[in-house]
Amino acid sequence: MEGPFKYIREGNGKVTRVIRMGTRKSQLARIQTDSVAEKLKELYPDLQLEIAAGNVSSLLLFQIGEKSLFTKELENALERNEVDLVVHSLKDLPTSLPPGFTIGAVLQRENPHDAVVLHPKNAGLTLDGLPEKSVIGTSSLRRAAQLKKRFPQLEFENIRGNLNTRLRKLDEKDDYAAIILAAAGLKRMGWETRISQVLGPEDCMYAVGQGALAIEVRARDRDILEMVSILHHPDTVLRCIAERAFLKQLEGGCSVPVAVYTEMKNSVLYLTGAVYSLDGSDCLKETMQTNIELDNKVPESAEENVHVGITANNISQTALDAAERLGVVLAKILLSKGAKDILTTARQLNDAR
Ligand code: DPM
């Protein structure tokens, strides 16, 4: 029972491994980690869980709102066996994880769409009804590009900070008429009542992986991998693999104007993907589909069964391959139509701001 992991000896002499979860300190991160802890306890009532917060505050893969920084330091707590799993919003995880790490579970997706949160003085309005030149707060290039095109009478400005900070900036100042946030984050924070409008794909398509939680683990820790794998939600996994493969093939990071929309209907997976110039005036958008056969084909070796960072040994290999191929093929079509130029220009203009 020696080794890098933590064990406890219970009253009856039984020795149990303690599963340690790392979390960032933000309220959203804590809520997300707690919700996964609860699910694990339901499924494994004997599980000894510990949640480490703060001392692993560096476990953030991207600095949101900043340029997409990938700091090596971040996964160190996992690497050093200080924690065994970390809960993230899937949309904040890069499409390629560093060697040694994998996503061991992708949970059932919440509402993936973006939502409008109004300044209290605008209660009852929609984006269409706001006065001309109203300022909308968002730092997402993806949201700004789509909404500028769709609502040219409105203006868009950056808003920074975690969700609590943003809502406070909206309510307590007069800088913004409304802000745009993911419906899923608002729901998890218990702020669903602040949603005045959910944006459908005709107004604003969502970010790759938006609304899904992911559990990051050490790739070699097969026990933990197996333990969390039962939290995989097959439809969500397949949709998110297609979305992530699309983004990866485009060589987009977390802060590029790339948006997606996916659906799973009658064993067919549909993927719509788009790239935009910063003001939305240039746009390439296509939809493709693939049949999903949930056969029993299992991977030759567990290590081989990784799709855009996700390990899902309990889902059909054929289905995972088809989902990944869908994303790759759709990206190649957009690239053949000039997506690279649109994204390169957007990145350069954004960096110069
Ligand atoms: C990423 C983006 C944003 C987050 C870019 C995008 C939004 C940044 C902003 C990659 N990560 O969406 O185009 O609004 O300035 C983030 C949120 C959640 C996870 C908050 C949000 C919660 C929803 C979820 C920030 N990451 O998007 O409102 O779990 O999907």
TrEMBL record:
GO terms, molecular function: hydroxymethylbilane synthase activity
The keyword Ribosomal protein is assigned to this record: no
Domain Porphobilinogen deaminase C-terminal residues, every copy: 238-309
Domain Porphobilinogen deaminase N-terminal: 19-225
Intracellular or extracellular location(s): Cytoplasm, Cytosol
Cofactor: dipyrromethane
Annotated metabolic or biological route of this protein: Porphyrin-containing compound metabolism; protoporphyrin-IX biosynthesis; coproporphyrinogen-III from 5-aminolevulinate: step 2/4
Alphabetical keyword list: Acetylation, Cytoplasm, Phosphoprotein, Porphyrin biosynthesis, Transferase
Catalytic activity: 4 porphobilinogen + H2O = hydroxymethylbilane + 4 NH4(+)
Function: As part of the heme biosynthetic pathway, catalyzes the sequential polymerization of four molecules of porphobilinogen to form hydroxymethylbilane, also known as preuroporphyrinogen. Catalysis begins with the assembly of the dipyrromethane cofactor by the apoenzyme from two molecules of porphobilinogen or from preuroporphyrinogen. The covalently linked cofactor acts as a primer, around which the tetrapyrrole product is assembled. In the last step of catalysis, the product, preuroporphyrinogen, is released, leaving the cofactor bound to the holodeaminase intact.
Family (UniProt): Belongs to the HMBS family.
Description of how the protein assembles with itself and partners: Monomer.
UniProt-recorded name of the protein: Porphobilinogen deaminase
Source lineage: Eukaryota, Metazoa, Chordata, Craniata, Vertebrata
